[in-house]
Amino acid sequence: MPTDVGQPHKFVTAPWRLSSSSWKLSLPALFLFLIVFCWTPPHFWALALLLKRDYEAARIPMLPVVRGERETARQIVIYSFVLFAVTLLPFAWHAAGLLYLAAALLLGAAFLRLAWRLREATTPLRARALFRFSLLYLALFGSVVAFVAYLTLLGRIGADRAGYTGVAIPIVALALSTLFEDLSWDATMIGGIAMCAAGNVLVLRRSAAGADR
Length: 213
Description:
Elements: H1 27-50, H2 52-58, H3 63-66, H4 69-87, H5 89-92, H6 98-120, H7 124-156, H8 168-179, H9 185-211
Helix pairs in contact: 1-4, 1-7, 4-6, 6-7, 7-8, 8-9
């Protein structure tokens, strides 16, 4: 029989919730909003650097048009540091465990590196690299949050810990879908749904096997 029934794993604490009884928004949920809010400027400014001529032609006052590429790159670095700091708030507030912290540090370090490289040389190649990674960053970050919350749920309902590995399958599918964005939408969608279904089936089977012990 599992020994951790009703207890979430110490590495995956995740009180990301909206109370259904009181309808009060929890602070960790606000942290998620802040993370996406701070992610938005460097993501769209990297894209704006790639489309600067189009914005100029359309007379749309995006930052690269009104302030220049160097200033845009500087602002991207500033907001990337802010994003990095904000992603650490859930751990500092004891709303997330070490698994979340490791993911936030790794993803944040990669984001900062690409932003700093863009600051050193504001080229289309580096702007494109940051833009593409920002998409992957948000997908992986959201997957980690969902993964942590799912592990916490499984721990509370007494699922066998071996069943946790099944959740990794849809996360891998999401990462691959983001990386290989040249695939057709239908193929990506079908593949993602299939892998999510396989992951859920694996979790249920292993949970049932653990309950029978």
